[in-house]
Amino acid sequence: xxxxxQLEIRLHAFVPLSRANGPGPRSVLWLQGCxxxxxxCFNPETHDRDGGRSATVDAxxxxxxxxxxxxxxxxxxxxxxxxxxxxxGELCRRIRATTSLSILVFSGYTLQAIERxxxxxxxxxxxxxxxxxxxxxxxxxxxxxxGSSNQTAHLLTDRYTREEVASTPEIEIQIGPSGDVLVxxxxxxxxxxxxxx
Length: 197
Description:
Number of helices: 5
CATH class: Alpha Beta
Helix content: 10-25%
CATH topology: TIM Barrel
Shape: globular
Distance between the termini: 20 Å
Radius of gyration: 15 Å
Strand content: 25-35%
Number of strands: 11
Number of domains: 1
Strand order of the largest sheet: 3-1-2-4-5-6-9
């Protein structure tokens, strides 16, 4: 088994199927750990680097591949995904190589800042859409996958049009297997169900 397949990624939550986190039905990974600490962040429980749980990239990819027939793509949010750029890059590379799924990543960093990081260009090379920029509560938007008006949706491939990205539903409510409630999307913030991989 290769070292890359055993690379670990720190997860806060995984939702097998969502329609409010990018175009079409998508699996969503919320990564754990963020030092940006944007005021009024939707997901402050994702900030602690020691929270959540670890999983191998291999286990995450296997779970997503099992769901592929139901999915249009995968969305990665946080926490701050770029603060796990090496594992994120491997995850995106493997999804791209073994599935036909699209990949969308949310980050508090700008595109230019990501391009300057050691593993950032590798992440960018394997994703279709990057929603970039810190959340600014005073310019709250909550639509078109943008939490605030300063953020930008970068179309890094021709997989989607700007209209397809912008037409993502603003909020979604799911009832989990044990009665837990998940509220996610740009209008609702996110109360996360910690589904197992």
